[in-house]
């Protein structure tokens, strides 16, 4: 069935509003924590009504997830592109993880809040589901690198440990700088690669 011109225009308008919301919220959240940013500010910056904003994100937690998901997706894509050009597993894994570390730490309060929303947010909420998908895709990308030199099963277990260790490092990083967090994650990756975990029985 061919989409009507009216429906096409409606969808284009909806997409344009979404892009304005992402740009406005992204700009505000780059400088301030989600607790300090109001939905009214986001709506005004995006040139939409507050009620319209709630059609895209019902809570500030959802708004944070929506904005951060876009950034995390870009970070993962950059990391995977870099990893594809590297042969050494440790360097390739870190090529995937470092952009994600930098993304999470761009505004530290929001990085922690994002992890909190992923962990404790509404399980039925679409933006949280997308965030969990990105986490899973990160793990798959890491497993693909490790799988160059080990079995798929072992690579999957190792990637799961590495991804979990990175998220824990980010959650507990406090005021540490990005290089220090990356160094901690790198140590964990080295350990897992040097001493692969046993496969589950």
From TrEMBL:
Position of the signal peptide: none
DNA-binding region: 38-57
Species name: Pedococcus dokdonensis
UniProt keyword list: DNA-binding, Transcription, Transcription regulation
Ranges for domain HTH tetR-type: 15-75
PANTHER family in UniProt: HTH-TYPE TRANSCRIPTIONAL REGULATOR BETI, HTH-TYPE TRANSCRIPTIONAL REGULATOR RUTR
Gene Ontology MF annotations: DNA-binding transcription factor activity; transcription cis-regulatory region binding
Pfam short name (any one): TetR_N
Source taxon at top rank: Bacteria
Entry protein name: DNA-binding transcriptional regulator, AcrR family
InterPro entries: Homeodomain-like_sf (IPR009057), HTH-type_TetR-like_transc_reg (IPR050109), HTH_TetR (IPR001647)
